[in-house]
Write a structure and sequence with these properties.
Layout lengths: L1 H13 L6 H5 L2 H8 L2 E3 L4 E2 L1 H13 L2 H6 L7 H19 L4 E2 H19 L20 E3 L4 E3 L6 E10 L4 E4 L10 E9 L10 E6 L3 E4 L8 E9 L2 E13 L1 H16 L22 H43 E4 L2 E4 L2
């Protein structure tokens, strides 16, 4: 009967404040064996309550102990092993033995320091990947609640905008940057013509395990918001949104031609030469420049003809004078010219 009352008192003392790694991993019976012989030095009396308050101060309200216990998934077992390795030897040693409170203070503080040093070496990086989704695999252990804290992100991811041309294929992938369970289910929903995240505006279009939603030939009535929701059992893990904008094919063709034309223009409205083709001729000169060039060519032509004419005139004059001299020096006889000696 007394043992039961003592256990009840100890439990109430241990859980009077917030939980910690000590309460998460050390059995209440081991704590009772540990504190059985705690002696108050001043009064020289055995006081179990004072021992539990000492445990509360050294372990439960110690921020360093709580921080050391924030390990990744699956490492809570190592936390228990580390704490048991420090507490159980002391509990076995102090069981049914009287010890001064200063001895308890020193031994328990050493145990806490050893636990902090060892637990701090365990993997501490959180696997939470923002900005959305229920990510239980990325949580860290919380010694205050004795369980893993899930990543505190909303289920709804931001809307992603995607574009498509009419009659072309459209594809949307329901992918997330964190691990998903094997027993997942994927549901695709659609809200026509609007960009929204209001759940009541969506209508279910398909359900299964396929995270790819494909539209073989996109038409204007496909424009709107698509929602991909991933489930695991009865729990919703994440909701992704895609806002699809569809451009009519005629408008898209005109836009493409306009872009090509704009890119082909040089400053001043001139066209670029075709890729791999002969270069375009230089720009046509101004009328004033053409007139000056033609005038210069004509003047050069006239000067050339004049020089040619004057260079040929002396030869003709000399030839005529020579014929006149011959006629003066001789006479024609019998059809022959006789030269007078």
């Amino acid at each position: 009967m007394c043992t039961s009352v003592l256990c009840l008192v100890c439990v109430s003392l241990l859980f009077r404040t917030s939980l910690s790694c000590y309460q998460c991993f050390v059995d209440i019976q081991d704590s009772l064996r540990l504190c059985w012989g705690h002696i108050l030095t001043q009064h020289n009396v055995r006081n179990v309550d004072a021992c539990f308050r000492k445990l509360d101060r050294i372990f439960n309200n110690n921020g360093r102990v709580i921080e050391a216990g924030r390990v990744g998934e699956g490492y809570n077992k190592q936390l228990k092993e580390l704490l048991d390795a420090e507490i159980l030897p002391v509990a076995n040693e102090f069981d049914k033995q009287l010890n001064d409170e200063t001895v308890y203070e020193k031994r328990l503080q050493t145990a806490a320091d050893n636990f902090i040093a060892a637990a701090s070496k365990l993997p501490r990086v959180s696997g939470c990947v923002p900005p959305c989704g229920f990510q239980s695999a990325g949580a860290v252990y919380n010694c205050i609640t004795c369980q893993y804290d899930s990543c505190e992100f909303p289920l709804d991811c931001p809307v992603k905008e995607t574009k498509a041309v009419e009659n072309s294929r459209s594809q949307m992938w329901c992918e997330v940057p964190f691990l998903l369970p094997d027993n997942m289910e994927v549901i695709w929903r659609f809200a026509e013509e609007v960009e929204t995240q209001q759940v009541d505006q969506f209508k279910e279009v398909t359900a299964g395990v396929d995270r790819l939603y494909s539209i073989p030939s996109t038409s204007l009535h496909h424009q709107g918001t698509y929602q991909c929701e991933i489930y695991s059992g009865q729990r919703s893990i994440v909701r992704l949104y895609f806002y699809l904008t569809v451009t009519p094919q005629v408008v898209a063709g005109h836009t493409e031609l306009q872009e090509i034309f704009d890119l082909s223009l040089l400053p001043g409205g001139r066209l670029l030469p075709a890729s791999g083709g002969p270069p375009h001729p230089p720009p046509f000169p101004s009328p004033l420049l053409l007139t000056a060039c033609l005038t210069a060519l004509l003047l050069l032509l006239f000067l050339s003809l004049g020089a040619l004419y004057w260079s040929s005139t002396p030869e003709k004059t000399s030839h005529a004078e020579h014929e006149d001299g011959v006629e003066d020096l001789g006479f024609l006889k019998g059809g022959k010219i006789h030269v007078v000696q």
